[in-house]
Design a protein that fits this description.
alpha/beta, Rossmann fold, seven-stranded mixed beta sheet, five-stranded parallel beta sheet, 15 helices, 38% helix
């Protein structure tokens, strides 16, 4: 069962980038998981549109007369374009013929299989990854602290989050799905449970053309949920999925992960490749995340109350929620997000690389008692590990928390409640 909820449009951080790219490129491709708001965002920027999933006859028409679907006021939104991959080359040629920017917006909730006949689109299309909404986009954050303005901020003062510990648990289980902003918690949990069921039963098959074992997919989703925000290996996931005694090899698990990546449900947070002062070796294993931490909660059937009663696991979910929001805020200008871990055991939850070449280091701690340890780790990274002559000084060092108040430590490190952060 799928839930479709009528909703108002909430402005997205990525809107400014979409508008900017439409002035420079022939087309913009919006990619992201089902239900994250791609169609609504595309419609905000389009002057005409067509939805390929509206009728099977439209797919047939795309095969027989693709040019007919491309006619309309520009920018023209082609929604769920991956259902008719033949349109890609037709749109590319149309962009070449028209010789003007802002012609098409393509949105899709899956990546079509590779086809050597399909051009890469370089020079014609800009790709934008969309995710479910951040806390500031959904109006849950007070938006007092701007990630991109922290470089010019010496001291934080009068910063207070509107979200309590219990409310953070509600937001984690609800997720950032635009259709759930105005719904109750019970409805949100039903939506997320249905979403996970659809992933296992239909979404992967429709996107890849391959029928995956739905029981094993559900077990993999549960394993990913238990290992969220960790560096769990494919071998570890394989062992989890095979807990019923039936062996499943690592290649199969990797194929499942690739399929989940195809529908933008699973993503990895890569390790940072930094220039270090010493010969200390860096670890290269990525951290594992869902596109939204609510899917992890749904895979394990967690209510807000159950999540809040398990602070250790809530800490993992909270970290993934922070990573979701940071990626959204960095996407605004094409930044990237990594994590750091070296052979000495020093770990930093998030390394932000900005489009201008600057960087920042961020630790994530749900509660206040871990702030001193996080401060020590950030200072160790800056003072003892990173070659500042090559990388330059960090724009800022920060600890993002689930606590109520924001402030700046004597060391200059900012303590920022997640419920106050924005782009």
């Amino acid at each position: 069962m799928r839930y479709y909820i009528v909703m108002s449009y909430y402005r997205r951080v990525i809107d400014t980038r979409v508008q900017r790219l439409l002035q420079a490129m022939g087309g913009v491709v919006l990619e992201g998981p089902r239900g994250c708001g791609k169609t609504s965002t595309g419609l905000q920027h389009a002057h005409s549109s067509i939805r390929l999933d509206a009728s099977p006859s439209i797919i047939d028409l795309a095969e027989l007369d693709p040019a007919s679907l491309l006619q309309g006021e520009t920018p023209r939104l082609i929604d769920e374009w991956q259902l008719a991959p033949i349109l890609w080359n037709a749109i590319r040629h149309e962009i070449d013929d028209r010789q003007a920017p802002g012609q098409f917006i393509l949105s899709g909730s899956a990546t079509p299989p590779d086809d050597i006949r399909r051009h890469s689109g370089a020079g014609r299309f800009a790709r934008i990854r969309m995710r479910p909404m951040s806390l500031s986009e959904s109006g849950r954050s007070s938006a007092q602290v701007s990630l991109h303005e922290l470089n010019a901020t010496d001291r934080l003062s009068d910063i207070r989050s509107p979200l309590s510990f219990a409310q953070l648990a509600v937001e984690a289980t609800r997720g950032g799905w635009p259709g759930l902003v105005e719904t109750g918690t019970a409805e949100a949990l039903d939506f997320n449970a249905s979403y996970c069921a659809d992933i296992a039963s239909t979404d992967l098959r429709l996107a890849t053309g391959t029928r995956h074992d739905p029981v094993r997919v559900r077990r993999l989703l549960a394993s990913l949920a238990r290992n969220i925000a960790s560096e769990a290996t494919v071998a570890k996931l394989s062992s989890d999925v095979a807990a019923d005694g039936k062996m499943i090899d690592r290649d199969t698990i990797r194929n499942y992960l690739d399929a989940l990546t195809t529908i933008f449900i699973f993503e990895e947070q890569p390790a940072w490749s930094a220039s270090l002062r010493s010969r200390t070796r860096l670890r290269s294993q990525p951290k594992l995340h869902f596109s939204d931490p609510s899917l992890a909660c749904a895979a394990l059937q967690l209510s807000p109350e159950r999540l809040a009663s398990d602070p250790a696991y809530f800490g993992q979910i909270f970290e993934s929620m922070v990573i979701r929001d940071l990626k959204i805020y960095l996407d605004a200008d094409g930044g990237e997000l990594y994590h750091y871990r070296d052979e000495t055991g020093l770990e930093i939850d998030a390394i932000a690389e900005f489009a201008d070449g600057g960087w920042a280091a961020i630790e994530v701690k749900l509660g206040a008692k871990h702030i001193p340890a996080a401060e020590a780790q950030l200072l160790s990274l800056r003072d003892n590990r990173v070659n500042l002559d090559r990388l330059g000084k960090p724009k800022f060092l920060a600890i993002i928390t689930g606590t109520e108040y924001g402030y700046t430590l004597p060391s200059g490190i900012h303590v920022i409640p997640l419920g106050t952060l924005t782009a």
